Task: inverse folding
């Protein structure tokens, strides 16, 4: 389907405006044909990042899973007993989503691309 410029502007005025200005442009600084190399570079935003208890809780689907995570981290002494109690209190009173939206499997790779 071929559109002339005037018809395109009538059909998609906002898109046409965005295309004509530099306001919403994204620069492409490189192109990679080697996918694994590109993935390594794009995920550098999380190099040396150590997830904390809340990062793990945000991966849980329900309260039971979150409690297991908290107990596990406390048992391994990755969090203190006081911190575990605080997390459990919030979990029981406000629910698992009170720690933030669920982090899906591709969370970090998607965030690295932003």
Result:
């Amino acid at each position: 389907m071929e559109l002339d410029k005037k018809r395109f502007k009538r059909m998609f005025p906002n898109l046409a405006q965005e295309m004509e200005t530099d306001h919403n442009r994204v620069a492409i600084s490189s192109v990679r044909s080697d996918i694994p190399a590109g993935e390594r570079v794009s995920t550098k935003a999380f190099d040396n990042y150590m997830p904390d208890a809340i990062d793990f809780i945000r991966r849980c689907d329900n309260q039971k899973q979150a409690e297991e995570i908290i107990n596990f981290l406390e048992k391994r002494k990755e969090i203190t007993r006081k911190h575990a109690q605080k997390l459990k209190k919030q979990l029981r009173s406000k629910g698992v989503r009170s720690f933030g939206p669920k982090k899906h499997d591709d969370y970090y790779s998607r965030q690295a691309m932003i």
Remarks:
- Residues 34-113 form one domain.
- The helical segments are 5-11, 13-20, 35-42, 53-57, 63-75, 81-94, 107-113.
